[in-house]
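Form 12-C: Joint structure prediction
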Amino acid sequence: MKNHKGGITGIEYFIVHACVETICFYLLRLRYPVLLAGTIAFTFDFFAFLPQGLIGKFIETHKKLPYETIGNLLMFASIFMVASPLQALHVAGYVVLGAGNAIMHECGAIATVTESKGKIFPPALFVSGGGVGIVIGQTMGINQVSWQWLIIPVVLSEVCALAARKSVRIGVYPKFDIVERKFSPWTIIIVAFLVTAVRSYLGYAIPISWNKELWQTVLLFGIMGLGKALGGYFTDRIGARKTAIFSTLAAIPFLIFGDKLMVVSVIGVFFFSMTMSITFAMCLSVIKFSPGLAFGVTTAALFIGLVPAFFVRFNIYVNAVMIVVFSIVCCILLSKTLKK
Amino acid sequence: MALYVILDAGMGGLVVFIGGGAVLVFAIAAFFILRASIRTIKREIEEAKEDDSDNDEYAETPTDSNHEES
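Section 2 - Result
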């Protein structure tokens, strides 16, 4: 029986996620003086990624608050703070933006898992919307489009999020069971955390070394989003283990060309992005009653994977070695911990 | 005193001073967030284990057959 409700919720939150990232990446591009670029990005990523698990758990246990509206209002307020001529407000604006982003992400994770009927594709569809938003937001920001246009994604995000409002509050979640039971839950969480951190590093930190033109940015994040959605689709169709082994190994030959042939290495990013659904489903398999918290494990790992990029850069040879070693390690870990 | 130290250090010193302070603040905040997250995950895992063992109990308990007394 087809899961129409799951698909509809996935599409609703695909749109929400696209709108959220449009706003975020427009504002990140708007105030990007070279001196503070790293600080701004780090501050935003810190508040957007790290506390999501706790925010998700709070949402699940305190259902009455209008989180969707709160998240969108925070993002709306941050637009004025970041666009303000008062420089003192800018960093605070990014903190508010990150908090709003985190709330919307958690609503999306909870809603799509609730309606998923145990399939990972609806949450994967929700996550893949981010790639579209990043592309649109960066394009708008780089071209200095007037910030007043951001009212459109704010309103669209609110409408779609409210349409899925009930799904966030049902409180009953389907079972995910893709991991081998012989491993302890903490082993599974650590493996999922490590693989996600590696994916974050490979997908964000290494491409930072590219001097990206706009079309390359569009390609990178568009491909990343597509990989995430397809990873969910194939996980449901052929199984998590097969998808994981294929995607981690297939990524290696393409990622090795990281620095010189960007278009080729983007294919590697596409393959590795397919593991996103798998790591989320792994967390859902052990954190059974809190999809918000399970999602927070993966977002915390995304942040940890990004941190090295803010402090250290490696040359292409070291990057190539890291790509091969990390990808093989991830393949082995996933093949051992996922059910045959 | 602090003002003279900052003036002596110059802009570069100020950036290091404030930047170092900011890194410390982030590190402490990250520690507390991660600690709270790990504790919450621990609770959830224990809850899931209890649920699994409850299900196992129900599976093992033999069902009573209803005997109709004549």
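Section 3 - Comments
The longest helix of chain A spans residues 4-30. Chain A touches chain B at residues 39, 42, 46, 50-51, 53-54, 57, 185-186, 189, 286-290, 293, 296-297, 300 (CB under 8 Å).
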